[in-house]
Amino acid sequence: IANNPANQPLKGIRIVVDPGHGGRSSGTYGTVPGLYEKTLTLTYGLLLRDKLQSLGATVDMTRTADVLPDNPDMSTRTDHARNNGTDLLVSVHMNGVDGQSASGCSIHYFNEYSYAVNRAVTDAMREVEKANNTGNRSEPCAWSPFFMCRVHDCPSILIEYGFMTNPHNMDLLKDSTYQDKIVQATVDGIL
Fold it and tell me: Which of 14, 51, 61, 114 is most deeply buried (CB count within 10 A of its CB)?
């Protein structure tokens, strides 16, 4: 990696991108009727894939369409990152809660060796949030026992890009300019 060309800094790196939910698993929903988490996670996941590939990474997607790849269970998703030289797993999600006040991203990890990339992604994403007057989480970099974070073969993080239940977050989450900026921040943190 140290000898990679400047325009291909991720050459030789294998990353699994997991757009959460899909198919009959719609995930959360928010202030826009008919728009579900599964739709936004696929949009963000495909954008992340494209940005990572443009920098030389090999990217394996757990889904590229509105399907549920959890047959028979969620281990089908994590199998993409097991015993095959994967360097990082990124699971893409949106958040939702009762009420509209919660705002901003949160990035989760389980294993100690996932903390460094988690912290770097968190810091990069916080800058985009500040520029867009969003994010009221006191500490969005969080240890969590989410299934997608408990991969032991490589660092793994689960990103909640914002709250679909917060009107300002929702306006940003569906805006293509914001999507590009916040996903670029994810990439910058990975770098």
Answer: 114
Distance from C-alpha of 27 to C-alpha of 4, rounded to nearest angstrom: 38
The answer on pLDDT for 135 being more than 90 is no
108 Cβ contact list (under 8 Å, min separation 6)? 118, 142, 143, 144, 146, 149, 157, 158, 159, 160
Q: How many CA atoms lie within 13 A of 5 on its CB side?
A: 6
Q: How far is CA 86 from CA 78, 101, 111, 154, in A?
A: 11, 37, 15, 6
pLDDT attached to residue 21:
95
In angstroms, rounded to a whole number, what is the distance separating the alpha carbons of residues 106 and 186?
A: 12
- Whether the CB-CB separation of 67 and 23 falls below 8 Å is answered with yes
Residue 1 has pLDDT above 80, yes or no: no
**Helices 176-190 and 37-54: angle between axes, nearest 10 degrees:** 50
pTM of the model: 0.96
